[in-house]
TrEMBL record:
<keyword id="KW-0378">Hydrolase</keyword>
<dbReference type="GO" id="GO:0008456">
    <property type="term" value="F:alpha-N-acetylgalactosaminidase activity"/>
</dbReference>
<keyword id="KW-0520">NAD</keyword>
<dbReference type="Pfam" id="PF01408">
    <property type="entry name" value="GFO_IDH_MocA"/>
</dbReference>
<dbReference type="InterPro" id="IPR050463">
    <property type="entry name" value="Gfo/Idh/MocA_oxidrdct_glycsds"/>
</dbReference>
<keyword id="KW-0326">Glycosidase</keyword>
<dbReference type="InterPro" id="IPR000683">
    <property type="entry name" value="Gfo/Idh/MocA-like_OxRdtase_N"/>
</dbReference>
<dbReference type="GO" id="GO:0000166">
    <property type="term" value="F:nucleotide binding"/>
</dbReference>
<feature type="domain" description="Glycosyl hydrolase 109 C-terminal">
    <location>
        <begin position="143"/>
        <end position="301"/>
    </location>
</feature>
<feature type="domain" description="Gfo/Idh/MocA-like oxidoreductase N-terminal">
    <location>
        <begin position="9"/>
        <end position="131"/>
    </location>
</feature>
<protein>
    <submittedName>
        <fullName>Alpha-N-acetylgalactosaminidase</fullName>
        <ecNumber>3.2.1.49</ecNumber>
    </submittedName>
</protein>
<dbReference type="InterPro" id="IPR036291">
    <property type="entry name" value="NAD(P)-bd_dom_sf"/>
</dbReference>
<dbReference type="InterPro" id="IPR049303">
    <property type="entry name" value="Glyco_hydro_109_C"/>
</dbReference>
<comment type="similarity">
    <text>Belongs to the Gfo/Idh/MocA family. Glycosyl hydrolase 109 subfamily.</text>
</comment>
<dbReference type="Pfam" id="PF21252">
    <property type="entry name" value="Glyco_hydro_109_C"/>
</dbReference>
Length: 414
């Protein structure tokens, strides 16, 4: 699974910030992948990326350009990994699909429901896949959970929660100097800006787009105080200190599903806090809570003869229910950023290309998961539930053969 001895795939990376450069390095280190094209609107980012080739001693011919359309005309490139800023994610993806390239789309949210439909149509017309690079789906904890829920250990799952709790105030606050898109997005928008880390694995647990679907959602935003205070403290003499910030510090989004479950996402990036995705999976026989690092199964008692219910460390569950993929990954001696999940999702992408297979997550997931952002903005502004489109056009009820069956599948026992 991790021998890296398949057909050598030829990839391009668009958007060469921290994440895009990470992808270049990850793929260049794989024996069966080449990064033969790189693109960023900033020439300095291209130059920084070329240093990675030198550092790794890679001598392959690499096309460099500031225009992604030019890159897409290169017939040698079979797939594009899109790590651009959120505003251009979908248009960079749609152009690649229309040019006949498969796409790996970095996590982020959409600007409009229309661009999500355009992305779906472009993939359907071209026959090329668009796979969200949803790395958290391949986390050890998350994959163990997917396994445990599939074995029915939590009973019928009724409710899931997750989020993005990451103190991003410095990155937002220095965004003009860093050239980082978060600053503008947090100033102008107000909604669930970063849904994918949580909704990815939750979708797998609840079968979303594969037997289940999202019906509607409602988002409620708190006031925006954290970033403003940060500006007052760190950049008091700049216009930022007096600027209105739209993004609420905490945005909670509740999603209703066709099979009756609820999902709550929490976006939390402008208050002081340690990092957490704050997951919770709860069913008729037990629950898991990420921030506790623990889980509970009905009947587990603190002491023999006592009635007090008892938590168990999730570490124990991981050693018992860790999926085969993770056992093999650890045994392979390979490593990857974000605790290994970046390598695994990168491998899933390469494997899908090599086998010309159905990707583990697809364009319908990409459209739905990213649409949460613009739908939540609508909900925050109107104060009510908004309907969630069915990007599969009814196929969610029975995907038939249209499901990934490779070793990287997230839809069958692994
Ligand atoms: N999966 C994860 O764990 C993870 C972690 C960090 C970032 N990300 C995602 O990766 C993406 C990039 O994040 P980042 O932190 O590297 O941001 P960044 O701002 O550092 O990099 C984005 C790059 O895209 C370039 N760009 C913008 N428009 C472009 C265009 N039209 N053509 C070519 N290049 C263009 C910018 O110049 C910039 O260099 C985002 O979608 C982010 O959400 C994912």
């Amino acid at each position: 699974m991790f021998s890296e001895n398949g057909r050598k795939v030829k990839i391009a990376v668009v958007g060469l910030g921290g994440r895009g450069r990470g992808w270049v390095e990850t793929f260049l280190k794989m024996k069966d992948a080449d990064v033969i094209g790189i693109c960023d609107i900033r020439e300095d980012r291209i130059q920084e990326t070329l240093k990675i080739y030198q550092e790794l001693g890679v001598t392959c011919d690499v096309m460099t350009t500031t225009d992604y359309n030019e890159l897409y005309q290169n017939p040698e490139i079979e797939a594009v990994v899109n790590a651009t800023s959120w505003q251009v994610h979908h248009r960079v993806t749609i152009a690649a699909l229309e040019a006949g390239k498969h796409v790996g789309l970095e996590v982020g949210g959409a600007n409009s429901v229309q661009e999500c439909w355009d992305m779906v149509r472009a993939a359907e017309r071209s026959g090329k896949f668009c796979m969200p690079m949803a790395n958290v789906c391949y986390g050890r904890e998350e994959m163990t959970l997917i396994n445990m829920t599939r074995k029915g250990m939590f009973g019928q799952v009724v409710h899931c929660e997750g989020g993005y709790g990451h103190d991003r105030r410095p990155q937002i606050g220095w965004g003009d100097e860093l050239g980082h898109y978060r600053q503008l997005n947090f100033t102008k928008r107000n909604g669930e800006l970063y849904p994918m880390h949580a909704i990815g694995y939750i979708s797998k647990i609840l079968g979303i787009n594969r037997g289940n679907r999202m019906l509607s959602l409602i988002s409620v935003s708190s006031k925006a105080a954290g970033q403003h205070e940060w500006y007052l403290e760190h950049r008091p003499d700049t216009p930022f200190a007096n600027q209105q910030i739209n993004q609420g510090d905490i945005v909670n989004t509740v999603i209703r599903l066709a099979n009756g479950e609820t999902v709550m996402l929490t976006h939390d990036c402008t208050l002081p806090r340690p990092y957490s995705r704050s997951g919770r999976v709860q069913g008729t026989k037990g629950l898991w809570m990420e921030d506790k690092g623990q889980y509970y199964l009905e009947g587990a008692k603190a002491f023999e003869g006592e009635e007090r219910a008892c938590w168990h460390d999730f570490e124990e569950a991981m050693s018992e229910y860790e999926p085969k993929m993770w056992k093999e990954f650890r045994a392979s001696g390979k490593s990857g950023t974000h605790g290994g999940m970046d390598y695994l999702v990168g491998r899933a992408f390469v494997d899908t290309l090599q086998k010309n297979a159905i990707p583990p997550v697809d364009v319908y997931d990409a459209a739905l998961w990213t649409a949460i952002t613009c739908l939540s903005e609508d909900s925050v502004s109107t104060g009510g539930f908004v309907a969630v489109p069915d990007f599969t056009n009814g196929r969610w009820m029975d995907r038939g053969e249209d499901v990934c069956t490779t070793a990287f599948s997230l839809d069958r026992e692994v």
